[in-house]
Amino acid sequence: MSINSATQNTSADTDNAGMPISITTDIADELLQQRIDAACDQACHAIAPAWPLDRAIAVNPHWGRIGRSVRQVAARMSVLSNINVFPSREYLAQAWDEGRISSIDLTCALSMVPAALTRALTEQQCIDALRTPVEISCLPLLIDVLDDDPLRHARLSWRQAITHQVSQTCASYFDERQADWQPEREQGLYGFWRDTLTHDHGIGLLMGVPDLGKRLSTLPATRQDAERWVLQRLGLPEAVWADYLESVLLTVNGWASWCAYLSWQAGQEGKKDSHLRDLLAIRLAWGAIVLECKNAASAQKAFTSLKQEWSQASDVLKRAEESLVVDEVWQVALEVGYQRQLAQQLCCAEADTTTAPVIKVQAAFCIDVRSEPMRRALEAVSPSIQTIGFAGFFGLPVAYTPFATEARRPQLPGLLAPALEVSDQIIPASGDSSANSVQLNHAAGEARQRHHALSDQWGAARRWPNAAFSFVDVAGLGYLGKLMSWISPSRAARSNDDMAGLPSRYKQQCRPVLLGLDDQEKADLAAKVLHAMGLDQQLSPLVLLVGHGSQTTNNAHAAALDCGACCGQTGEVNARVLAKMLNEPAVREGLQRRGISIPERTVFIAALHNTTTDEIEGFDIDLLPHEARQEWNNLQEIFASAGDQVRRERAPSFGLNPPIDHQELLNKFIERANDGAQTRPEWGLANNASFIIAPRERTQGLNLEGRSFLHDYNAANDTDGSVLELLMTAPMLVTHWINWQYHASACDPQRMGSGNKLLHNVVGGHIGVFEGNGGDLRIGLSRQSLHDGKRWMHEPLRLTAVIDAPAQAIERVTQQHAVVRQLLENGWLHLWRYEGDRLVRYAEGQWQALTLE
Count of alpha carbons within 13 Å of 829, Cβ hemisphere only? Predict the structure, then answer.
């Protein structure tokens, strides 16, 4: 009896126990649905979210799998979808041949990997393995075993064709900004796909099945029917249901990641989203279609083959895990080579306290690795400047709405949800809040809205089919200016898209303002931020809050270069809001009552570090007292000198000549930033490798080569451990996400990276990119962000977190937070701790001596 007929059974017959058959059938049906739901949910949970282009966040694509060890996940990814998690043996062989990995590194790694010790793996066995490709069987799906046509190599495989069709459907369904004509979505993603497929007359030709359209009557009517059909019809052991379903999702991993993002966002709002389950059902339903394209003998042969393969899934996974022990050893060996140098630097660092200068300026930078060279340069140029590392959203959980728009966006790490609102207001330097200011805001808002209305009309004129040719005749020459700006890049300063369309007379007066908080609430927020930053005492006359942002042109992934954590935004809004709040007399009075005294002479200034050109830009300087403005002006020469030092340090990685004149070198960086044909305006966070949570004295004067996230922390001022808990559960997770996005994109650029940037086409206006005109939605980093054309610019190392805090305080956090515990116990990151002047590492649940020699 089929499921559908069973659920409709209303007869009064009874079973052997005397219970009506309809009731027992309903109970069995409900239990089956619960088991199916559990398997589907487990598969969906394994997919990490991928943020849209305009809110790009670096994500560990294996975030949903951190409950397993890295090697277990590597085995699963290889078996389920032929995805590489460890660096390729070709890459490791080159590192070995060039001396990047030494014999000492390999020996240390063999002693640090428990599985290598158990197997008594030798150095020579590891070296020999480098020249041997790893052989791991990838378990097939139903569409694979059914695709047995002898001529299949002359066309797209069914797997490729189905991925393409599903991807194109998703692109149409999820589009919000790109197409003028939007589809109806009331029936949901599954229903939309089902309807679309019945009108797709080309997919059959791509698959070599011209009469495919005649088979569509077999399509399951609902998502639940599709799930049930596969899990019951295939007859696979229930133990492998979730694995099979995960393998299915990995065939459309890009769109699955987008659906996971929608689910993540819904979860932050206390809601649920079903798109990922719909996508899974779509891929499963394709099995019902292609099965109808085969005769009974072929179908039975396919079922037999599939069941035989998946009945051995446990053994296949186990063998894969064993095969990858060597790869894990080489991964550790690669990391040991870097860690030895890092340990030597950290243990030899000595703060010079004999001639400690008077601190005149404190500059708080984001922990981003690109801040490390700039902080080092500023301290070298002017010892009276003290730099501080802090998360670049400056502790403000805000969402920002640009002036006279409805484009609300989060300005904080994706792990968090906004709790406060920020919007722009036109505020003259006089600070006038009278009716004149209201009129000013109204006039500026109308001016911007008129500009946007004209822009919409202009855009429509070139998109409508009947106007396309005449538009080219009328406006074609107008595009020559943009084309010329790409051929001969300008030296214009970084532009702010949030101000686009606002008349220039208003731009300098347009300022972000925190909404909805009274003075006491502001004081509470300010006290928490200052304490977390370590700025609740001993403040200098000038305190800079330095966010960071990138400058780039014609780059779909531009937001990924702004901040790898804060939803792809610059730190400008947060820095300006916090500086304004901390300069308010009423807030300072509230802080005084909370035991935090800000000297009257202390002024907070918001600034931005342009990570492409290494220039520092200030904001709202016209609102400052005369003396503070003069001090800011005096800093410009220091900024220029420090920026020049950093640019000369970075120049070789772009093929530029460091010794040239400082203005000429700066111009070259600016031209790169404004070059629409430039695929590598900067290297972003490439080569990130460590995260150090410690007082600046631990790292001051060290050249960490732009590879370290630096967060200031003094355990003596954190008696209850609350700040440490915050750092280990927010910034440490964010840096881990960044680290693993780069790691995954470098280890498997085809499946975990977004491919060749030159072939990218934006999907849905902001959702993501295709490489070419189809295939799956691409996630991760492009090859140009990791490779300079000759060599890899990012070494795939797992993050080494170094914390200067008591062991008990660190262990308390790991015990209370399962996510942190999983990352450490399953090898997703390394953890070190300062113990006096030496370093110890956390391994197998205990602190061990750091022996890297």
Answer: 28
